[in-house]
Amino acid sequence: MDTEIATALIAAGSAIGGSAVTGVLTWVAARRQAGAAWAAGQRQADAAWAAGKSQADAAWAAGQRQADAQLAVTQQTLTEQARAVERDVRRTAYVAFLGTTEAAHRARTALHDALGTPTTAPLRQAYADALAAVFETLNLVRLEGPDTVVAAAEGLADTLPTTATSAQYTAARSTFLTAARASVTAP
Q: Does residue 130 register a pLDDT over 70?
């Protein structure tokens, strides 16, 4: 009986030992599997984080480029509008000046034609008034510029005294018109 008990004890010990070894091996395998699953999950989470960050960075950069482009378009539009207003103001000043010089030239011609007649005095006053208007509008041209147009305008005003010839007036008028056109059509 001793051998039967011994065999039973050995069998029981073997079963318990085998179960213990199997349990330990199963536990080790499960732990490895859990570690591998954890590592895979961590890699997947890291990859998802990196992809999300990359997408967010790309979206941010695209938004910045779009905002910069919109800002550039707005700035260009405002600059063009300011230039258009400047050209319109200059054009108005140049037209006013040109109108007063034409009136002064006509008044000078009428005065020359009437010299020695009873209408000389009123025509002399009309000529003086026309010259005063020229110098008022010349100040507008001086204010609006640019220097090339101011110089041409002053040259035209210098041809209006009674000692200047009509040819001098015509040449100075042409010079002024060329400078004024260049100013209002410049980009």
A: yes
